[in-house]
Amino acid sequence: MARLSPQLVTTIEILSPFNKRGEGIYQYQDKRWRILRSDIHLVELDLLRSGQRPGMEVQQPPLDCYYVVLVSRARLEDGYIRKSDIWPVALNEALPVCPVPLLPPDPDVALDLNEVLAGVYARGVYGRRLDYSRPVPPPALRPAMQAWLANFPLQ
């Protein structure tokens, strides 16, 4: 059973367009740097196709994907040494079940991102708010994804 603790153990950051361009990316990179220099685990969800990715671990080499899920673990027993797991996700792939790190010896908690997304989509009535017959907003899709989308049932 997980121990109750008043300390922040893991932060889950969902990137917004502000976090990925202009002055906003510099502000977010500063926040991210402070998190990575601490004993806080970072779960970062980049579900945006445009803008600059904030972390070097996903920029070099550049990931050839649309979405990125990153879990950066603070190695509490060894100081500030980090270990990051990265899941590149294509537009036509399911989001992963993401591990949310806790304090040792407690095991990770599994976060089913597809389930979360489905719940947000349903509660936000996005099915009625979004017009899927309109062209995909920029940036342009890669040819393989254009072909996949052309055969997608909602089109």
Topology of helices and strands:
Elements: E1 10-14, H1 22-36, E2 41-46, H2 56-59, E3 67-74, E4 82-89, E5 97-100, E6 109-112, H3 113-123, H4 126-129, H5 143-150
Parallel strand pairs: 1-2
Antiparallel strand pairs: 2-3, 3-4, 5-6
What number is the mean pLDDT?
Answer: 87
Poorly predicted residue ranges: none
- Compute the number of strand runs: 6
Order the strands across the largest sheet as they lie in space. 1-2-3-4
Instruction: Note the overall shape.
Output: globular
Main beta-sheet strand count, sense and barrel state: 4 strands, mixed
SSE ordering? EHEHEEEEHHH
Radius of gyration, whole Å: 17 Å
**Helix/strand class:** alpha+beta
**Percent of residues in helical segments?**
25-40%
Strand content: 15-25%
What does this molecule look like?
With 155 residues, the chain is α+β, with helices and mostly antiparallel strands. It has a domain at 10-111. Helix content is 27%, strand content 23%. The protein has five helices and six strands, in the order E-H-E-H-E-E-E-E-H-H-H. It has helices at 22-36, 56-59, 113-123, 126-129, 143-150, and strands at residues 10-14, 41-46, 67-74, 82-89, 97-100, 109-112. The strands form two sheets. Strands 1-2-3-4 form a four-stranded mixed β-sheet, covered by helices on one side. Strands 5-6 form a two-stranded antiparallel sheet.
